[in-house]
Structure formats: C-alpha cells, structure tokens
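Lab manual, section 2.4: Encoding a predicted structure.

Procedure: take the sequence of the chain (308 residues), apply the prediction step described in section 2.3, and record the output as structure tokens. A sample record is shown.
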Amino acid sequence: MPYCRMCGSGTVIAYLPYAKMSLCQKCFLEFYVRRVKNTVEEFKMFREDDVVGVAVSGGKDSSALIHSLSKAFPKLELKALHINLGIPEYSDHCESRVRLLVKSLDIELYVFDVKKRLGFTIEDFMKTRFKRKICSICGTIKRHIFEEMALEANVRVLATGHNLDDIASVMLNTFFNGNWSQLTRIKPLLPPLAENMAYKVKPLIRSPEKENLLYCLYGELPIRSLGCPHASQTGIRKYMQLLERFSEEDPGFKYIILNRFLELIPMIENVFPKPELTRCRLCNFPSTNEICSYCKRILLVKQKDASA
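Recorded output:
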C-alpha cells in the first residue's frame, strides 16, 4: 500500500511519475500551490504589491491558476478577466463557472461580452473564409481583448493558464516548422509591447495539464463541464499526443523539453532581433503592420454583415 511521501498518510490520491512521489489530497494541493509560488519567484513574474490580472476562461487551467495564486500570495491583489465569446450555451456556461469561482475567492471580475461590445460573436467567423481555422481566429481575438481588458482593469501583470503540456507542444511545433523567432513569445515572462501595457506571465509553465485538473477536482473548484463545439485536432494537439507517448517511456520528458528550450531562448533572441513595431491605424495597439491581425479579422466580419 503506497503512503504519502510528505505526511506518511495511507490515503494516497495522486502519483507523480516524473518525481516518483505519491501524495494524499491535502499534500497534493499544498505541493501544487508551492510549485506555482516557486515558479513565480524563479522567473520574477511579479511582486506582491503588484496588481495581477488573470485571464480566466472557466476551464481547469485558468481556474487552477487563479485559485492557486490566491493561496500562494494571499496579500496579492488579483483581478479576474473573462471573455464571453457568444458561443451558444457554451459561453454562458463558462461565464457562470467563472462567476462562482471568483465569488468564492472574493476577487473582482471583469467580463468582456463580445456581442455587446463588438456587435458580433466568434460564431460569425463561421461565415467567412476562416471557418476551418476558427481556433486560430479565436486565439487572435482573445489575445487582443485581454490586452484591452488589462488596460481597463489597470493591471500591471497579465497571467495566463498556459501549462507544461501547452508550452512543450508549442515549442515542438514551432521548432519543426522552423519559426524560431516565435519561440521567444512563449517565455515564462514577456515584457510589455508598449508603455502602459501589461507584462505577460505563465505561472503554470511547470504544471502538467492532468495535475491542473486534479487540483480543480480535489480543491472542489467550479469548472466548465461542456467542451467548445469548435475545438479541433490542431497541429498543437497532435504534438501533445506525441509528447504523451514519449512520456510513457520517460515521465520527465516534458520537463526536459521545457528546460532545453528555455536554455535556447536567449541565444535565439540574439540571432533573431525583435521585429520593429508600429501602431495599428485602427486600434492604435502595437503591430508589425499598418493594420493589426485583430483589426483585419474584425473588418472581415463586418464586411460580411454589410453585404448580407
């Protein structure tokens, strides 16, 4: 019968193969929070007197993130930022989960309703040439909106729930596609693109996806039970499956990938200088082009509506 490595209890609920460690429920939750705290401190993501916005979707990763940050840094001022994308049933379900969670933590919530604020929903992109790339479009829209929300909420740091599996699979995808300069965008801490904009941090960079789910389940956090109807088997998801197969042979494989790429990033930054940024003439946000990717997508949807 296995015993908890930390307290000796016989009620083990989790085994972490990469660490060869069995943990009971209480010790697993404490271990998880301590790892988040150590990650924040290792990469100097923020100070305890900062105001940190957390992008919260209602899913396991972002829910585990905001809850664990509140436990790891009880004096830290947190603000929850949520986007309602207007996907029938799914989006309202996600928002309801977020509202329950932040209420239990007594954290201020900011909600950006895409339909009310912009006059369209993610569903409207299904009528455009991007209907087969809806996940990519959604990512572009959300990244920009979270930048806007960070400004509106007056937060200095924006934390996202990217986990170990996300980062390792994106690193592999970026590597095999030869898009070296993009590797620098998945660092644990990204400086602001312009004055008054937020730093972006990834406190879950060392937290596996499965453990985020366990943290939510054993912490009894309200998380969404519906899957996004537009989710697809993207290239990134295929690399996640590849990582899982390698991890069966070597449980620490994802950590090896992460650590090797983190070592490479400073060298890549020296070889590939940052692109020159200008200001988008429509939204005035930093962009490499006259009109940013976000505004191009918005124009596409509005033009479709006008011609309908």
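Check your result against the sample. Residues 134-153 form the longest helix (20 residues).
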